[in-house]
Sequence to fold (559 residues):
Amino acid sequence: MGSTEEDTTTSKPTSLYDAASSTEPLLFKPTTGSAYPSPPIEEPPQSGPSESDPTQSLQISFNYGPRPFKDLPFLILFLLFVLCTFAFGIFSIFHRNDNYSNVSAFSYDSNSTSCVQDTSFLSSQLWVSETSFFALSSSSLWTYLVWTLVITSVLSVPICLLLLFLLKHYTKQIVYVLLPFFIIMPVFFDVYWFVACTLSSSCSDAFPLVYRILVLIFILLIVGVIVWIIVANWHRIELTVRIIGVASDALSRNLGLFLVIPLLTVGLLAYYASIVVFLVFSRFNGKIVAKESNGEYTCVWKQDSWVPAYFTLAILTMLWSLTSMVEAQVYVTSGTIAQWYFSKDDTKPHRSIRRSLRNAFGPSSGTICLSGLLVFVVRVVRAAVDSAREEDVPGIVNLVLRCCVNALMSAIDFLNKFTINFAAITGEAYCTSARMTYELLRRNLLSAVFVETVSTRLLAGVIFVLSSVYAIAVCAILKGVSDLGVNMYTVAALAWVLLILVLGFFVHVLDNVIDTVYICYAIDKDRGEVYKHEVHDVYFQLPISRNSRSSYPSRTLDV
Fold:
């Protein structure tokens, strides 16, 4: 097994790549307590680097040792947000006013100059609500919908595992067989909807012939764009197939991620459920007061003044928690895959997922919170910029401001691209990881940071086709065993949405694996070593393919 704590005095193997690129120094000096071994103090040769560059012998690899806590201020700030949200939420539960939902049962009493409750009105309203609920619960539509979604949820697990197995062993066959269905499926649904809507009197009345033709043409134009994308990227299909195969092999050797990553999502949902409960009960904090309007008094609900501020705090906490959890999942995935990559044999490292979880929610939790905060701010600012663009506010100042904001957001995206992957490998702080990632890629002729986007598009097409086939099967089964009529299309559509969400989550994890293996390949190239020959055989073609074509379309993050 490849050790990550090699003695830096050991001579490096002969580089398989450009020797000059592997000896170019980093831009920073290692600090005390760094995750890397300190280089020996030697008298530099006259023609070598100056004494201000002691990082020339720095070796980057996975840090298995104890890691110090990094970016603690952001962890403390995040915990402060969470504690305030839960503290005020618990207070709202015990301080609630149960009369919130019964405002209409109160009337103004001129004798006491206050609002009093009419109990008979309350009991009648409760009886009507319970009757409506039980009537709704007995609907056959809900029964079939619930059972269909439950069965889909259960089947999604073996479907994901089967897809991973097929992508690992039969990537080329799967891609080339399903590629024509990227076109056939949208055209089929488009024509089927047009014919079915034309034959249905209710649909024909709701959608006139002109609108149906416009929808038909619009979908066909989208299909034309898909065809153009496939043709324009056809020369990259073979390389993309190999990239997906390598990533699928890496993921198949760490199947525990399929249990850990969904459990983290479930934990986030449980965390969200508690905050939602707090938000619901916070609305109950207030009182019923009399309000005068045109000489008449009515009873209205007056909310406590702190409730709107609590809503803002809770929503911000939820959004920051969401982005931080996504970054934590990327961290755990990257740490686990990196440990597999830097092992000399093909066996899975012992307790690799546990080690990644301990690092993610321990020493690197502040780094994850900072990364999540940056992602959250970028999303909010971009949403605001898009909203301003839709309003079409005139003026050169507004145009320049939008350009500056977009440039800044692109720079942050560039900074954040591989930073969390590198932090999972080394345990360094966020800013240090960003700087070292840039230097690592630049020093090894990979400074134009790019990874294949065709893999994401191909996988998206694959899961679309599989989900569509599943939805057609659900629709056929419901037509044979139920009398739902047109409602079966609604149930099948919801089953399609659920399955494509699960498979989309699988593609997201596979994309993280691709990025992690790319960074590990860059570290290998920097060290002049080869831990995984099959990875080098594939990823080494990325710069070659890009340089061999002046118009090679790759994902380029422009600053």
Observations:
- The mean pLDDT is 77.
- The chain has 20 helices and four strands.
- The radius of gyration is 29 Å.
- The first helix runs from residue 19 to 22.
